[in-house]
Fold:
Amino acid sequence: MMWLVCGIFLITFAGVPGLFCAREGRGAERLACFLTLIGTASGLAGVTRALLSDGEMIFDLPWSLPGGRLSLCLDPLAAIFILPLLLVVACGSIYGLRYWPQREHPENGRKLRLFYGLISGAMILLLIASNSILFLMAWEVMALSGYFLITTEDHKEDVRRAGFIYLIATHTGTLALFATFALLSQISGSLMFPAAGSLPIAGSGLVFLLGLFGFGMKAGLIPLHIWLPGAHAAAPSHASALLSGVMIKTGIYGLVRLTSMFAEIPHWWGWTILVLGGISGIMGVALALAQHDIKRLLAYHSVENIGIIALGLGLALLGRSYHLPELVALGLAGCLLHVANHGLFKSLLFLSAGSVIHAVGSREIDHYGGLLKRQPWTGALFLGGAVAISGLPPFNGFISEWLIYLGAFLPLRQPSSMLELAVFAAPALALIGGLALACFVKVFGIAFLGEPRTAAATQAHESPVSMLVPMFLLLLACIWIGLLPSTLIPLLSQAVVHWSVASGVAVTTQALTPLNWVSYVSWLLLLLIAVFSLWLYVRSRKSPRTINTWGCGYQFLQPRIQYTSSSFADSLVGLFHFGLLSERHGGKVTGLFPEKIEFSSHTPDLVLDRLLIPLFHAVAGLFRFIRTSVQNGILALYLLYVALAVFTLLAFFTF
Amino acid sequence: MLANLVLHLFILLLFAPLLLGIITKTKAWFAGRVGAPLLQTYYDLNRLWRKGFVFSRTTTWVFLLGPVVGLAVPLLAALMIPFGALPAPVSFEGDLILFVYLFGLSRFFTAAAALDTGSSFEGMGAAREVTFSCLAEPTLLFVLLVLARLSGGLSMNTLLGEHLLASWRSEAGASLTLILVCLFVVLLLECSRIPFDDPTTHLELTMIHEVMVLDHSGPAFGMILYGAALKMMVLGALLVRLAIPWDTGWWLTNSLIFLAGLSVLAVLIGVIESAMARLKLPRVPQVLVGTSLLSIFALVLVLR
Structure:
C-alpha cells in the first residue's frame, strides 16, 4: 500500500515544481513527465503486490476530521479501475511533451500539467477511499481539476462556455452525492463505507436514486450527458483522453461501489439502469454519427460506451435481484472489462485524433482526407482503435461486449418471469454495434482514406516518435486483452465475488471459461488474415499504382467529388430524425443550369440545446416578468405590500 | 473431428461457387435464354486468378485488406455453423455472437476499402452497406434469441441441433416459420440480391455491394467473388438447417440433403430475382424495420 500512496503523491504533485521554473524552459515539463512515470510505476507495483497477495490491502490512520478514520482500501474492484488509469496517465504524460510543449504554450502549459497531475492523483485516491468524507474530498478535487483542464485555452469563447456548463453539471451532481452519503451514513451509522452486502434494503430507494443522479451525471448517461460533448472537445487531446477514458468511469465506479453495499437489490434498480443504458447507447451513437467535429464525435461515443457499460451493470443487478450467480458474473465482468477496454481504446482514439489535429490544424473531419499516406503510423493506430471501439474481433471491445451478450441471453433459461424482457438488451447491443461500426467506417474512411480535401491536409506530417509510442502502448494493451482474454479471468472473478458475496469464484470462473475459445478463434482469424495478406502483397507487389480511380467515365476527378462525412451518415441520421432533430439549411437545386448553392447541416444536442437552454431561458423570462411587475418602483404599491404583510401577520397571530 | 473438419471445408470450398451458377441459370430459364453455364463462376475465378492487378494511385494498403478480410471471415464463420446434420467443427458457448461479429469485421474492411479509392460512387455504396446492415443486425439477434430459447444452449451446434424437428411439431412452429422468413430477408440483404441490391448492375446509382468493389481487379477481385460465394453458403446453411432438420445418420446422405437444400434455396433466390424488381432505396429501411418487428413477434410467441 505504501507504494501506491507514494505513487499518488508523485503523480499529484508532478506539476508543482514547474510553477517555480522559468516560463519558457523545457526542464519543468520533462521533470513533470518523469515524476508522473515514476509515480505510475510505483502505483503499478503497489496494485500488483496487492493483487498477488490475493486480497485487499488496507491503510488506516486516525484522523482529526469528523467521520472516522483516514482509511484507504485497495480491493480487486478498485484495481480494475486503477490499472487502465495508470497506463492512460503515463501515456498521456509522455504524449503531452510534444503535443503541448511549454515553448509553444507558455501561457497555459504549466497550468495544464499542474491540473493533469492533480486530477490523476485525486482519481486514484477516490478509487481507494473507503470513507465518505475522503471520497467526496477527492471527488471534488477531481471535478475542479477537470474544470481547469477543460478551460486550458480559456481565451476562447466556446472553451469558456463548455467549462461553465461542466462546472454547473458537476456541482449539481456533487450536491446529489452529498445527500447520498448523508443518507447512507444514517442507514449504516458511520461515515465509513460499509462492507459489501451488509446494508438492509429498507429506505435505500432514495439513496439509489440520488446516487444514480450524481454518479450518472459524471458518467454521462443520457439525459445527464449535457456537459460531456462540449467539455471533451474543448480540452487538449491528452486531457480529453484522460477525461473521457478514465474520469467518467469514476461515475460507474461510484454506482458499482454503492450497489455492492446492499444485501438485496430491488428489481427496479436493475431495470432502471438497463433502460438508461439502452437509451444512452443507442442515442449516444446516433448523435455521434451526426457530428462533423472529430472530438465531439468521440465524446458522443463515450456516451454510447457508458450505455454499454450500464447494460452490463443492469444485467448484473438483475442477476442479484433474481439470484442468478451466472448472470451476475457475466454482467459485471462485461461491465468492468468494458470500463477498462473503453479507457484504453478511447484514449488511443483521442491521442491519434490529437495527432491529426496537430498535423492539419482543424477538428473538422471534412477538412482531412488521404491522411494514411501522410501519417501512416497515426492512421494505422487509429484504425486499431476504430476496430476495437466498434466491438469487432480480434480486439478487446469484442471481448467485453461478448460477455454482456452472453449475460443478455441467460434470462431465456428463466421461463415465465419478468426477467425474460431483459433479453432485449441483446438486439439493442447489436444495433449499437452496427451503428458504431458505421460511424467509425465514416471517420476512418473520410479522414484517412481517399484524397486530401484541403491544402492543410496535403501538407500534413507524421507526428514525432514520442507521440506515437504512447498510442502504440495503448494499442498493444487493446490487442493483449483481445487475444489473451483468459489472462484476466482471475482478476475479473475476484472482483465479481467482491461485489456480490453470493456468487462464488467457481461459478464465475466457469461462466468465463469460453473466453479461451474466443481467443483461439481470434488467433486463427489473425493467422488467416496474415497469410492472405502476405500472399496478396507478394502477388501484387510489382503492379504499378499509376492510374486514377475510375470515375465511371468522368475524367476530371477532384477531391471535392468524394463522399463527405455528412453525406456518408445522411441516411442513418435521417432514420434517427425523430431523436436527433438535425437542422438542414439550403441545398435545393433548381433549373437545368443551377447557380452556386450552399448546404449546411447541424445537429444540436438533444437535451442541452433542445430542452435545458430553452427551459432556463423561459424560467429566467418568468422571473424577469415577476420582478418587473412586483418590484416596479411605484411607491404606493410598496406601501400596499407593507400593509398586506402586517395584516397577514396580525391575522396569523390572532387566530 | 479432423475428418469432420475436412468434409466441412471440402463442401464449403468446392460447392460454394456453384450456388451463384444455379441462381444465374434459374434467371436465364425464367427469361427464356440458355444462359451462362452452371460452372461459370469457377471459370470466372480461374480467369481472375491468372490476371494482373490495376491499382488507383489513391489507394493504400487498406484497399487490399478489404478482399483479404472478406475471404477470411466467411471461411472462419463456416467452421462455426453446422452444414445440415453435419456438426460444426468449432463449437463453444457463445460462438453465435462471434459468428455475427465476424461478418461485422468483414463489412468494416469492405466499406473502408471502398472509401480508400476516393470515388463518390464507392462512397455511396459503403454508406448504404453500413446503413442497411446495421438495421438487419437486430433482426439476426432476435432470430438467434428465438433459437436459443428453443434449444436452451448458446452455441450454433445446439441452436441448430436435433430438437428442431420436435420444435417444428410443437406450437413453436409458427415462430420458426416467422424467423425463417426473417432469415431469408437478411440473407437477401447480406448477399446483396434483389430486392435490396442488384448484382448484375455495376453502373446504376442504386447499387450497393457491386459498387463498393468497382475498383478491384485480378486475384483481389477473385477473392471478393469467392468470399461472396462462401458467405452465401454460410448464411444459406443457417436457413437450410432450419428448414430441413432431419438427420439420416450417414454423412454422405446428410451432405447430399444439405447440398440439395442449398440448391433449392439458390433456385428460390433466382425465382425472386426474376419475379421482383429492386426496391426503391428509401423503402429498404422500411422493409428491414418491418422484418425486425416480425422477428420480435416471433420472440414474443416463444417467450409467453
